Amino acid sequence: MRQIYEMRLEAIIEAKKELIKEERRKPRSEREETIQTTIMLPQLVRMVIGDIKEKCPDLNWQELTRILIEHGFSIIEHRYGKVIREIGKVRKKLMYPEIRRVRNFLMDTKVNIDGVEKPARKGISIRKGLHSGINTVAEKLGIEFSSMIRLCIYHSLSTSSELPSEVLNESKKEIERFKYDLLEAKITLMMFEWGENIWREKKEEWLKELDNLSE
Predict the structure, then answer these.
(1) pLDDT digit string (tens) for 134-188?
(2) pTM score, two decimals?
């Protein structure tokens, strides 16, 4: 079988069906551990997943969304792995920043980078190892976990040769937003690193200047 990221949506669903059936036949104790969570999904995504499910009645919602998420995450890792690693390296250098504003931003700010129109909360099930991988990338990029899941789904949907143009266009729009955000994340962290270096070099000098001004 080709690498997952090389396959179209329809091909990956067909390829995964038999594996899912085999997994169902296993005793619960032998099945791969999954993590249950809920995320906000926009109306269009809920519509298209429901449409795909109707055409694949032997897959339930949890199984189908798991395929989409795994497929999309594989594409993200393949396409953007290099820049994600670069961002991760800079973030690691900023593990203990001295500037409090930088520390607060890095530790407590998570952005939502995709549009969520007419959202509704839906339950999903993700393999434990995959959940960990997606969460690691989300942390590196400072992106909300739910936003990262939706981006995985968009990347998977964008490979379809059968879905309506509205779905494909929306998916591609969100992918372009993600690519832009990757560059923003990289340059922001680079500026933080530069700021930290200047701060360590100049802070004592600047403090003396302030003391002199206050005399």
Answers:
(1) 999 999 999 999 999 999 999 999 999 999 999 999 999 999 999 999 999 999 9
(2) 0.91
In whole angstroms, give the CA distance from residue 198 to residue 68.
44
Q: What is the 3-state secondary structure (H, E, C) of the chain?
A: CCCHHHCCHHHHHHHHHHHHHHHHHCCHHHCCCEEEEEEEECHHHHHHHHHHHHHCCCCCHHHHHHHHHHHHHHHHHHHHHHHHHHHHHHHHHCCCCCCHHHHHHHHHCCECCCCCCCCEEEEEEEEHHHHHHHHHHHHHHCECHHHHHHHHHHHHHCCCCCCCHHHHHHHHHHHHHHHHHHHHHHHHHHHHHHHHHHHHHHHHHHHHHHHHHHC
Considering Cα of 157, then 159, then 162, then 163, what sign does the dihedral take?
Answer: positive
**Are the beta carbons of 47 and 111 closer than 8 angstroms?**
no
Residue 21 CB neighbours (<10 A): 12
- b/e map 158-184, b = 16+ CB within 10 Å: bbbeebeeebbebbeebbeebeebbee
* Antiparallel, parallel or unpaired: β 120-127 and 34-41: antiparallel
